[in-house]
Design goal:
about 425 residues; alpha/beta; 2 domains; 4 helices; 30 strands
Length: about 425
């Protein structure tokens, strides 16, 4: 719609037409007795009549330009919402609106294109993209009446609906041979998500008899594998394995040189405050409660057989590849990620900014447990994860690892957050 400023100018035009009508009445009165004055009055009124007629033409052109801008902006945001980052979305909108922008357009969220035109592109919390363009229309005739410009603005918002096509709960990023090894006794069920394997080596994975992997999809980028038996549902080879969705996006904390806890801890009840835990070992079979917050595990934390661990609203961070939580078996473990704050949704993650970690990948071992319930993002791309003995797990996770060995596990998997959707776009639409 033409903005309020333009409406005020339309009201001025209406008042101008009223004055013209009254002037005509005066002219009729004058010319009834003084027909010689008609030429003089006509000459006086000519500019006024020209402005009235020309103003209608100006308004028609202004509406036509607004309609053109609106159509371009609608198309621009529909294309932009398919892009994955703000910079690309901005560039896509500029590509569509290029005819209305000067040559010196700069990247940014809000940029004044000239003294008149302004383009804004913004990301909304629901994933939609809004584009707004404001410009000034210079009329040809209304300038005679003091209306030198008319403000025009358009706005559009588009959103992309995601198609649930069985994306990964587990991302195996390693390119090496045998990136996944499934041994006898493995029993994994994930009907709402799957496993994506990036290896193209020969073989990319090996599956042995006596195992069952029932996932929504088992996507392997390579085409060579060894299957010695067992049941594997929804296998796809040569498929487009999903990229690591968290690469470079997790904020790594500064690790204090002061240890909050360290060494051996005795006692059947242990309460762990957030902080740095250095090479800590728990004797006996205690109940260990991690208070909500960030817990930095520096070195190996050893939890003996039979212990119970409760960690609700907790994030575990490993500053190097030699740091881990190692349970010796018979563990009962319940852990959930924070629901707000800097580490919202992150249950476990490691330092990936230090090249020495990525160049020195290490094992991360989950030993047998009575039951584990984990919920959150587990980002361990520098770890070769191993599940030993019988591990009973019910996880709602999105896990990234370098490689994986499943020796024996009863594992129920459900997607966490955006896991379970491959990110494939089902449709895009305008929402306003």
């Amino acid at each position: 719609m033409i903005c309020l400023d333009m409406k005020r100018r339309l009201n001025m035009m209406s008042r101008l037409e009223t004055k013209i009508f009254k002037t005509k009445q005066i002219i009729r009165g004058l010319t009834s007795d003084r027909s010689g004055n008609f030429g003089i009055m006509a000459a006086v009124m000519a500019p006024v009549l020209l402005v009235a007629a020309g103003g209608a033409v100006d308004m028609s052109h202004a509406f036509a330009k607004k309609q053109e801008l609106q159509e371009k902006m609608d198309a621009a945001v529909l294309a932009a919402v398919l892009k994955s980052d703000a910079k690309s979305q901005r560039q896509e909108v500029e590509n569509f609106m290029g005819a209305f922008l000067p040559e010196d357009t700069k990247d940014g969220q809000t940029v004044e294109m000239s003294s008149a035109a302004v383009l804004t592109v913004s990301n909304n919390p629901d994933g939609s993209v809004t584009g707004t363009f404001a410009d000034k229309f210079k009329p040809s005739f209304l300038g005679l009446a003091g209306l030198n410009e008319l403000n025009i603005s358009v706005s559009s918002t588009a959103i992309a609906d995601k198609a649930d096509t069985g994306g990964p709960c587990i991302y195996v990023m390693g390119k090496q041979s045998q990136a996944v090894l499934i041994n006898s006794g493995a029993n994994v069920k994930a009907t709402k998500c799957g496993v994506d394997v990036h290896s193209t080596s020969n073989p990319a994975f090996i599956m042995n008899s006596g195992s069952t992997i029932n996932t929504m999809r088992f996507c392997v980028k390579g085409t060579n594998y060894i299957k010695n038996g067992g049941t594997l549902t929804n296998l796809e080879v040569g498929c487009a394995a999903a990229d690591n969705p968290y690469a470079g996006k997790l904020s790594e904390p500064t690790v204090s040189s002061i240890c909050t806890t360290s060494g051996t801890r005795d006692g059947q009840t242990q309460v762990m405050k957030s902080g740095v835990h250095c090479a800590t070992t728990f004797n006996g079979s205690p109940k260990i409660t991690f208070e909500p917050g960030l817990h930095i595990i520096k070195g190996r934390m050893i939890i003996n057989s039979g212990a119970t661990v409760v960690a609700e609203g907790v994030t575990f961070y490993f500053p190097d590849v030699n740091s881990e939580i190692r349970a010796n078996g018979g563990l009962t473990f319940t852990a959930t990620a924070p629901t707000s704050g800097t580490y919202k949704g992150i249950l476990m993650f490691e330092n990936t900014s230090n090249a020495s970690n990525s160049n020195n990948k290490q094992q991360y071992i989950f030993n047998g447990s009575k039951g584990e319930q984990l919920e959150g993002i587990i980002h361990l791309p520098n770890r070769d994860v191993v599940y030993n003995s019988t591990t009973n797990q019910s996880n709602k996770i999105s896990m990234v690892v370098n490689s994986m060995i499943i020796n024996s596990a009863n594992w129920q998997l459900e997607p966490y957050g955006s896991a379970g959707s491959s990110g494939t776009v089902g449709s895009v639409r305008l929402v306003r």
